[in-house]
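assembly run, all chains below
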Amino acid sequence: MLNRAAAQRVRTFAPRTDIAREGEKPKDVHLILNGWACRYKQLEDGRRQIVSFFLPGDICDLNIFILREMDHSIGTITPVSIADLSREFFDEISTGYPRVATAFWWETLVNAAIQREWTMNLGQRTASERMAHLLCELFFRLRLAGLAEDNSCSFPLTQADLAEATGLSKVHVNRTLQELRANNLIVLKGKMLVLPDLERLMSAGLFNANYLHLDREGRQLDANE
Amino acid sequence: MLNRAAAQRVRTFAPRTDIAREGEKPKDVHLILNGWACRYKQLEDGRRQIVSFFLPGDICDLNIFILREMDHSIGTITPVSIADLSREFFDEISTGYPRVATAFWWETLVNAAIQREWTMNLGQRTASERMAHLLCELFFRLRLAGLAEDNSCSFPLTQADLAEATGLSKVHVNRTLQELRANNLIVLKGKMLVLPDLERLMSAGLFNANYLHLDREGRQLDANE
DNA sequence: GTACCATACTAACATAAGTTATTGAATGCG
DNA sequence: CGCATTCAATAACTTATGTTAGTATGGTAC
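ok done. output:
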């Protein structure tokens, strides 16, 4: 499946550019092959909120073409390459391969669960809990994608990105990271994140991985499918 | 379709009770026939966040049974009656009626869009913007469901509910509502909400209805389908 | 009607987080 | 290599929102 996907149109984007913009008619489903991207929304006065991150292997909004226009934008963090999956390709795959269709639903439901957890994160957690939680989530997801070492991962987000994702100011993000550092919960330097004690970071962020549904009953695809 | 749904098992719940709980195995899809409910998440220390509201006609988490366990709870606000749609009923419907399947996708995508907007709401909007935005959203959705008059609707949420949905304290919710009242943006008394000037409330909340996708290209069901 | 409970409201005070501004350290570019 | 730009760090100060605690109001059960 993934091979066939890769055989579709592949495009690459520079860092800090838009893959799709709010207001556009959504045409394809995007599969992230490489790099980090994010979904964000913007208010008229410029306030910006990152509402989710895309890591390699993630699919943006299945069946999005059912909607008339995009209600958010998708932008890159690092250089990114994506495969565009057309509506036709997509329909064909999902009717022809029921297990693939199930896997698509799984992806959709997990994305929704992540979005709910973000709502919780912004609504209830304090700044440092919120930051710890976000770092845990990204680390777990990277690990699942095979992109993390034992206790570290590459980490291309700037403090400004973290501010837009957590709803905090840049200054407060800095303060919060200092605090996590002072407690030996993170080592973050030069696009590299080390988590010396994941357990403690998880409890600092009141992080419970259940919402990521890592068991993935419906996620039985292998690369040849 | 809706008739057949109603022919499934129907249950009623008292106000302020749980329909489903975090940790349970999700068995059915729930269709709200009557009343208001909400989805919420809770931290170990008791902090609670309402992550979405369900109004009559809403469906909770299509295909949720693909996941192994619930990552959130569903509770009632008012008395509620629901139809439980079994996995089998659901599969049968969606394979037999492609337009229904499309409508299901539409529902799923709009719910995701609403969840993203909530993330934006909590992350970027001030208390009064946030409150104004939430009131606009509920009013638009009620109107779509045929449950609003010209500029008013029944409104069973307490200030405590609003606090849990907006991530504000109860006291600040009260202050915020006073402010909206003082600006003649709302009249809220005894379970009834009046919006004397929807346009102004919308701009106070930086509300743009695009994320609700009211055009609903994929939402062509009528009651007989 | 009285008692009770949930909800709404108010006030005084505490604090987490935002703002503005400056500096220093990396990083990339011509 | 030097310059420019982005990013990170810090400081001083402001403000939005939270906390605690109490009073008022309104519905409803007996």
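The mean pLDDT of chain B is 91.

The first helix of chain B runs from residue 2 to 7.

not gonna interpret more than that til we talk
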